[in-house]
Amino acid sequence: MSCCLVGCAVPSLEEDWVRVTVDPDLPAMPCRCGETNVAHGDEVVVETADGPFLGRVTLFSPPVARPPRQHSGKIVRAADDDDRRQHQAIGRTEEEITRALKRRIHTLELDMRPLKVRVPLSGRKAVVYFTAEQRVDYRRLVRELAKSFRCRIEMRAIGVRDGAKVIGGLGPCGCGLCCSTFMSRFHSVTVRMAKRQNLSLNPAKISGMCGRLMCCLSHEVDQYPSRNRKS
């Protein structure tokens, strides 16, 4: 393998893969480091499907045991002062687009909820994640934003569970949301699982930030005896 992870040994089947935190609200993404020497805490520029982003190498996440099929990136180089300044400028741009986006959605009376705006270091486009109960005609919104910020606006509609995964947050247990920390895919969750664990069926007690049943209901249900079998 060509990657060198400086100052640490990570037991991985693919040693040239490391995890990089690109968004502090989301779990670290697997990235191929190639010829770049990296260590825990190093700031790097990562090339993703949406463009280059500034990230930080982390060893607190589980090592990459096998090459991922999707949602991965490639470390291009170590970040320099210009990259950091550009990252700060991009952060301000994201905030400006978010404010303008919310104002225009209210003015145009669009039935949609914006979740997050991400702009790569290139600044050539902005990716807007949103949820909507029904199909929304946002063509005018896109034209106005593109004209105001002089970049391509890409709208991505996602489900409410995926929305919680994108924005992250804390659950009622005080820990980070399961979907945005360690879950790689969503599992089926039913009220029967709550009943089996003798939990209150009050929707406010068993629903997560997304408004759906909490994913953690399915994590421990097998530890509780079923009514159909002897305990």
List the helices and strands and how they pair.
Blueprint lengths: L3 E2 L11 E5 L7 E4 L4 E2 L4 E6 L2 E8 L14 E6 L2 H28 L4 E6 L6 E7 L7 H11 L2 E6 L2 H8 L10 H4 L9 H6 L6 H4 L25
Parallel strand pairs: 1-4, 3-7, 9-10
Antiparallel strand pairs: 2-3, 2-6, 5-6, 5-7, 8-9
- What is the end-to-end distance? 51 Å
pLDDT < 50 stretches? 6-14
Q: What about the largest sheet?
A: 5 strands, mixed, barrel
What is the N-to-C order of secondary-structure elements (H for helix, E for strand)? EEEEEEEHEEHEHHHH
| Count of separate structural domains | 3
Structural account:
There is one protein chain. This protein is an alpha/beta fold and 231 residues long. The protein folds into three domains: 4-79, no CATH class; 84-158, K homology (KH) domain (GMP Synthetase, Chain A, domain 3); 162-223, no CATH class. Helices cover 26% and strands 23% of the residues. It has six helices and ten strands. The N and C termini lie far apart (51 Å). The model is unreliable at 6-14 (pLDDT under 50).
Q: What tags apply to this protein structure?
A:
alpha/beta; GMP Synthetase, Chain A, domain 3; 3 domains; five-stranded mixed beta barrel; three-stranded mixed β-sheet; 6 helices
